[in-house]
Amino acid sequence: MEAVTATGARLSKFGGRATVLQGSFNQLRSLLSERMASGSGLSGALFDLGVSSRQIDVASRGFSYHQDGPLDMRMDRSSGVPAADLIARMSEADLVSIIKRYGEERQARRIVREICRVRDATGLSTTGELKAAVTATRPQNPTKTLARVFQALRIEVNEELAELDGGLDAV
Known about the structure:
55% of the residues lie in helices and 0% in strands. It is mostly helical. The relative contact order is 0.15.
């Protein structure tokens, strides 16, 4: 909500020529159809594609390995499945696939083996626990490896690529 307010303030200098719409990219088709029905057209679109410091800096959002917090990672905490739940229910093979595909992590199999070992032994519900599991594999560059693993899980939790496809198709 903060990002929507800030964006609205920045675009206010364009008057009625810029409108900020809030929703997932997959909701864009219905949001745009409402505008089209009222006679408003669309001549361009801006997409918020990134994770912001507003999300990363708040430990309770669960996006960062720099601070311990609940392992959530959802952009919209009112919907979807938190990362901890995703990790708890996914098979080892599926987790490896996600971390390879979205994190491009070469050591995905070894990392996921440790994540699953911890998950099965004690549960995995915080960013600190995930960080400890990943670093226990002694990666060559822990910071890059953590960034890749957290990125991959965030992309999966938020279905970011499918959302983007839906938004681009709507526009």
